[in-house]
Amino acid sequence: MRITVHIPDTLKREIKITAQNEKRSVSSLVAEAVQYYVRDTKRKKQGKKMLELIGKAKVSPDILQELESGRRADDRA
Hints:
The protein is an all-alpha fold.
């Protein structure tokens, strides 16, 4: 898929330099950065939701295991 975005020139230079240093395309670097952002935003939202639920209900001792399971599932997606 092709998407057009406008970014500041200073960021453009940093992206190009980083891509060159890592011997990869600008496209793959930006795609990875966007993927990281989307995943991180989703995790933060899940964490906030979990904290809200914790205040309303008893918390199972297995909650950490459940959270980690959800994170692993996200990593596979």
